[in-house]
Each structure stands twice: as C-alpha cells, then as structure tokens.
Amino acid sequence: MAIVNEAAAPAVRHHPSRSGFGLRAEVHDEIKNDFDSVLVQLIKAAGGTHQVGRLTFRLAQEFGFCYGVDHALDLAYETHVRFPDRRVYLTGEIIHNPTVNEQLAKMGYSFLRPGDDVTADDIVLIPAFGAPTHELERLKNVGCLLVDTTCGSVVHVWKRVEKYAREGFTAIIHGKYDHEETEATRSRTTLYEGGKFLVVRDRAQAQDVCDYIEGRGDRERFLAKYAAVATPGFDPDRDLERVGLANQTTMLSSESLEIADMVRRAMERRYGPDELKARFRSFDTICSATQERQDAILQLIEEPLDLVIVVGGYNSSNTEHLCEIASERLPTYHINAPECLVSATEIRHKPAFSKEEATTQNWLPAGNITIGITAGASTPNKVVGDCIERIAALAGAA
C-alpha cells in the first residue's frame, strides 16, 4: 500500500509501494470537479477542432495530465479522505502547476520547511518528482508516515543510475541540476560507495564532456565549470573513463538522444570500438507521456496555424519544451493561467528559452485565425478550457 511506516521500512534504495488506499472511486468525482473541463471534453469528442466566431481552435492530440500526475493526485486526495484529522506535509510542489498546488493548499496541505517539527504522528507526501535520499532518510528517522507519489518513470531512471553506480560507471544525467527530479536522481548514485554523477544541461555542455573524453579539455577549466554540478571530489580524468547516460524524464527527447550519441562516439574515438561495451552505457529514460506530447505538438504545427498557446506552469520542464518546439515554427505563447490573457492586444507569457515572464502587445491577429492549443503533462484540462473561453471572449467571439 502507498503508506509506509519508515520506522520499519527498508533502506531508501528499496522504493515504497504507491498503490493507494483503495479510495480511488470515492475521490474520482472530486478530482474531476476540480480539474476537468466539459469544454475540453466536447472539443476532443469533435475531433480536436472548435470554432467560435472568427476563431478556430485546434487541440494537440495529446496534452494535459499524464498517468503519473493522475496517480499523484489520486494519492493526495485519498490521503485527505483517509486521514482528515492528521497534519499532512508535502516535501515540495506535488507537480509543477500553480492551480493544482493551490487546490492542495486549500485542502490543508502545507510545504515542509526547514525547522518544521515533523513527528511520527504526521504524514508526508513525496511529490511526483521524488525526493533526495538524504531527505527520505531524515523522514525515516522521524518515523512519520510517507505517501509516495513518485512517478514510475522517475523510479525507472533511479534504477538505471543505481545500476551504473553499482557497476562503477559515472552517471551523466541530461537535466536541470536544480530541478527536483534531477536532484532526486543524482542522489541515488550516493547509495553506493564510489558512485559518481555529472549533470549536463544541453548539447553545448555535452560537447565539453566529449572534448575532455577525447583529450581536448583543460582540467582546471573543466572543474571550474562543472564541479558544482558533479559529485563532490569529481575527477574528470578518472570519472569519465566509464560512463552511463540517463536523463530527466521531461527533457527534450531529441536532445537527450543526440547527447547520448555524442558521448558514445567520443568514447569510441578515445578508446576504440572494442572497448566501448566495457566503458559506455545508455538507455532512453524520457517518459512515454513526455514523448507523446512532444510528438503531438510536432504534428500540430504541421497544420496551418496562426499562433500556438502552450498552457502550463512556468517551472514545468516538459511544458517549456513544448513551447520551444512550437516556437521554431510559429508565434508561441507559454502561459500558466487564463489571467495571463490580459486583453485582445496584451498577453503575459514566458518566451521560449527564457526564465522570466514577458509582456507582448498585439498578440492576437485580426480576422479569421486558427490557434493551436497544447498543455504540459501537469496542466489540468480545466485550465486549458478556461484559457480557450478567455481567448474567445477577448476576441469578441464568445
């Protein structure tokens, strides 16, 4: 069952079960009421196209909540029903969506902060991204009850990097170093003596690693740039001799695959094809839902569109990548709530490859236009539907 008494639990490398409390049917209607959209259901039933006045909306074939998010919310709502009088904490945002996290706050969930006096009588939810091993160990020592909502795709990556560490390979992780998922993943290497990791953010950083493997790097310059995103005491001369590739599950799939191939070719050039099997490991750990949503936006932007709206949390990695993909072809606006749609002439959004919200004028063209709509894997359909209704109202088409 999903609740684990950590006082009697095995070591944190053995992942707790996440099967729930048998209350899924009881919480189904509440979750549906909080996060579903009748409008989105109707548009899907109509083949993904919705026309209102001068506007035509086209939905991506795959968008919004994935299985992992559905599972996390089931557990959160079941916990609320099962333990209505217990104090319940979250170690961090359960998923990267403001609407969802605000709803859990209304239900009484609070974020676990440093100094909070957690006791064995409390319940702590582990988010869908997972949690670092040191945090799980601390909670185990407290003896509180854990409800683990970690996505199965993330657990799959953990098993991969743990295997690398056991076999003496450094885990090269394509991801964002400070993202909760990557933080949890890199911590899994520390379960084994001598386990090592190095996080690379993009192709350019991966190229630095390849250059060093092939003998073109400067040790001091490399450590100055990458020591902060690697295992303490990381030695590139020693720790890049045997490497295994993994990735944050929500990264851009094409980039992860390219980085793995870059490193494989560098190892082959450095050590020769006969040594490759003993020195290189790789496994595609992009989750299927991330891949499906990336494939769907690629398909959507092949259609005749005037612009694309991407709906999702600004700190959602998989949503960011949807925006990046679409922006290569069309004007694209990543918004996190209907309120970002200020007027028919003004929109607040986070541009592709930017960390800050921006304001753009004259974003909605005049005349008959077609708008592509997609959303990240942590975005409720309700927010998508509300955004469509807001756009229609602003255009005077409601």
From TrEMBL:
Residues annotated as binding dimethylallyl diphosphate: H96, H179, S316, S317, N318, S378
Cofactor binding: number and manner: Binds 1 [4Fe-4S] cluster per subunit.
Binding sites annotated in the UniProt record for (2E)-4-hydroxy-3-methylbut-2-enyl diphosphate: H96, H179, T249, S316, S317, N318, S378
Annotated keywords: 4Fe-4S, Iron, Iron-sulfur, Isoprene biosynthesis, Metal-binding, Oxidoreductase
Binding site for isopentenyl diphosphate: H96, H179, S316, S317, N318, S378
Protein residues bound to [4Fe-4S] cluster: C66, C151, C287
GO molecular function per UniProt: 4-hydroxy-3-methylbut-2-enyl diphosphate reductase activity
Active-site residue list: E181 (proton donor)
Gene3D superfamilies noted in UniProt: 3.40.50.11270, 4-hydroxy-3-methylbut-2-enyl diphosphate reductase, catalytic domain (3.40.1010.20)
Cofactor(s) listed in the protein's UniProt record: [4Fe-4S] cluster
Pfam families linked: LYTB
Pathway recorded for this protein: Isoprenoid biosynthesis; isopentenyl diphosphate biosynthesis via DXP pathway; isopentenyl diphosphate from 1-deoxy-D-xylulose 5-phosphate: step 6/6; Isoprenoid biosynthesis; dimethylallyl diphosphate biosynthesis; dimethylallyl diphosphate from (2E)-4-hydroxy-3-methylbutenyl diphosphate: step 1/1
EC identifiers of the protein: 1.17.7.4
Family recorded in the similarity comment: Belongs to the IspH family.
PANTHER family: 4-HYDROXY-3-METHYLBUT-2-ENYL DIPHOSPHATE REDUCTASE, CHLOROPLASTIC
Protein name: 4-hydroxy-3-methylbut-2-enyl diphosphate reductase
Organism: Chloracidobacterium validum
Chain's gene name: ispH
